[in-house]
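[job 4471] stage=fold_predict status=RUNNING
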Amino acid sequence: MNERTAVPLYMQIKEDIKAAIQQGVYKAKEKIPTEPELSAEYSVSRITVRRAIEELCGEGYLIKRQGLGTFVSTPRIHRKITEGNRLESFSTLCQSCNMVAGAHLLSRQIVPIRQEEQEFFGLGSDALLIYVERLRTADNLPIFLENMFFPYQTYRGLMTEDLNNRSIFQVMKQIDGRTVNDTSRRTLEIAKASPKQAQKLGISTGEPLLFMNCYFIDQEGHPLCIGRQYYVGSRYMFEL
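[job 4471] inference complete, writing structure tokens
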């Protein structure tokens, strides 16, 4: 470490570890040395090392796994929005990256419909929706929280189906024969992870998330479902 430069020590350590990752000294999914080990290696305090590690985690180079240590992240997943305004499916995307897609059911309940949902589905104020929350993973690394809303009368079968490690669109097709063809509207915003979201995704509270709101339709333009997804910004990227 160069103490004569104006560059803070934690920043020098951060850049040194980043260079080691980029040069393949630390490989994807590999555990890096512990904070005490890095502190001894660089002859600095653990607080200095911790700040460097936290910034690298925030930028997506490293990921902390509780009780296991700190690991090099896999390259950020790139999801293309294809011609016709369609999204490449997450399962297909993971397969193309030689990763295993996962889906873990977190919550499933019947909820009242809201105004915006009434307008999209063409339903009355007394209608009910099925709300499904799942954690989507790639090689067991949490990537996004999937929040899906379906008309209860059409998709009541979702309340008893096994929704773990399955394409929810395939389950929908089995229930009523229709398939997702496109989205009638889609918005993308920046959000900050709430404490509950952070816990589920294994990130820090306040870490940047990409919030995508999608209104899915079938081939005839009829409404199917609504998706409100929260992606970990350091692990995911959209290609427009």
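[job 4471] summary: Helices lie at 9-22, 35-42, 46-58, 90-96, 115-121, 152-155, 168-176, 195-201.
[job 4471] exit 0
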